[in-house]
Structure formats: structure tokens, C-alpha cells
Specification:
The chain has 229 residues and is an alpha+beta fold. The chain is 40% helix and 10% strand. It is elongated. Bound molecules: zinc ion.
Length: 229
């Protein structure tokens, strides 16, 4: 269990490297291990300051799922800015500094028209939101951006580490979100992708919790003809 004294102990050592706490790296004033991380322990457990930061700011005080590591979008292993932290696999965690550029999701942060943080993208694909409308309302972005993320067209550096199919189901096909006779352009695109991969319309209908006739109609080109994948 993390308690307030752990959080206080952590925050006492944090300084922000600039005047924008969302963008700038957060320094942690403590000893470092050779890889540049700062050891930090709580609950009788040895861990790292950046991991602690991720847990308290981004993960509701819970440990990340097994097998996932807290990685940096910036090139600063000691940085504890939660906006620079995301979950990745061991493979990614082991990438050394010279490879960092290849996986730098800060690129996404810099697309001003998108107005998203790495953490927003992670939230979108890890089930924080109920549906697409909820995402759009909370993050003030268009549904088109959400669909692009869900298809893996943008923010690939982050989304490649997550189960996008599961994210799609959560946001688009949750039976509580949408009646079975209603589809929107995002769903139609995904249906078309599945059809192009020769999935059975019956299976697709079941997966997306929609009426099978809708899938047939799309498949025959009787509806949503204008939607191109
Ligand atoms: Zn940083």
C-alpha cells in the first residue's frame, strides 16, 4: 500500500526542469543507478522513482500489469514527469539510449492540431473512457482522431504496445453504448477492414454486437458505399 508519507517523500525531491510542468522533465533529487534511474522504495519494496510517479499519477495508485515496464518518452531515464511515462514491454524497456529516437512518442505530443498527451492516448486505449463520444468530450478532440488512434494510424509508437482490438471493442462495440441497429463511420471502417480480411459477416456482427444484416448490407455495397478503407 502506498500512503501519504510515501507521496510526500517523493514530492519533496521533485523539481520541474522549466516552467511548464506538463511539458518539461521533472528532476528527482536522489541517487541514481548506472542506467540513470532513481531508486525509490515503498511498502518494503525496492523500485524506482519514475515507476512510483507513474503509479500515483497515471495508474490510480496501482501497480502496472505484470510484464509491463514504466518507460520514458523523453530521453531522460531519471525524469519522473508522469506525462513522459508510459507502459511498455521488456523489449522496449531494454532498448538503449541510442535507439530512443525510434520510439519517441513525443512526436505525437508535438502535433498541435491533435492536442493529445502520450498519457491521453494510453487512457483512450486502456479503457478509461466509456465510448468515443466520451473521449471526444473529455479531451476536446474530434472522433476522427480517436478512430485514427484505434486503427493504429497515429501514435503508433505507443499503440503498438497495446491491444488495439480490445480497445476498439471497449470504445466502439460495448453493447451498453449503442443499440444493435446503429453503426457509425468508425465502426463501418473497421467492419470493412474485417471483410477485406475475409472474416465471416456473422462473426463480425457478433463481435461488434450489431445486426448481421447491417454487415451483409455493407459487404454487398448497399450501404456506406462512400466509406473507403
Ligand atoms: Zn522527461
Amino acid at each position: 500500500m502506498i500512503d501519504q508519507s510515501d507521496v510526500d517523500r517523493f514530492l519533496k525531491r521533485v523539481t520541474i526542469d522549466g516552467d511548464n510542468e506538463k511539458i518539461d522533465c521533472w528532476n528527482y533529487d536522489g541517487c541514481t543507478i548506472p542506467k540513470g534511474y532513481h531508486p525509490f522504495s515503498w511498502d518494503c519494496r525496492q523500485s524506482y522513482a519514475h515507476r512510483f510517479s507513474y503509479i500515483i499519477y497515471n495508474n490510480n495508485f496501482k501497480e502496472p500489469p505484470k510484464g509491463l515496464y514504466v518507460c520514458h518518452t523523453c530521453d531522460v531515464p531519471g525524469c519522473v514527469n508522469p506525462n513522459h511515462l508510459f507502459l511498455g514491454t521488456a523489449i522496449e524497456n531494454n532498448l538503449d539510449m541510442k535507439n530512443k529516437g525510434r520510439i519517441n512518442p513525443a512526436k505525437g505530443d508535438q502535433i498541435h492540431t491533435v492536442k493529445l498527451w502520450a498519457q491521453d492516448v494510453i487512457d483512450i486505449i486502456t479503457g478509461v473512457y466509456l465510448n468515443v463520444e466520451h473521449v471526444c468530450a473529455e479531451l476536446n478532440i474530434t472522433d476522427n482522431v480517436v478512430y485514427k488512434i484505434l486503427r493504429g494510424d497515429i501514435w503508433k509508437d505507443i499503440t503498438k504496445y497495446y491491444d488495439l482490438e480490445k480497445a476498439n471493442k471497449q470504445l466502439l462495440f460495448n453493447p451498453w453504448n449503442r443499440p444493435s441497429n446503429v453503426v457509425d463511420i468508425g465502426i463501418v471502417k473497421l467492419i470493412k477492414i474485417r471483410l477485406a480480411q475475409y472474416h465471416s459477416p456473422t462473426v463480425i456482427a457478433k463481435d461488434f454486437n450489431i445486426n448481421r444484416n447491417i454487415v451483409y448490407s455493407i459487404s454487398y455495397g448497399n450501404s456506406w458505399k462512400h466509406v473507403i478503407i
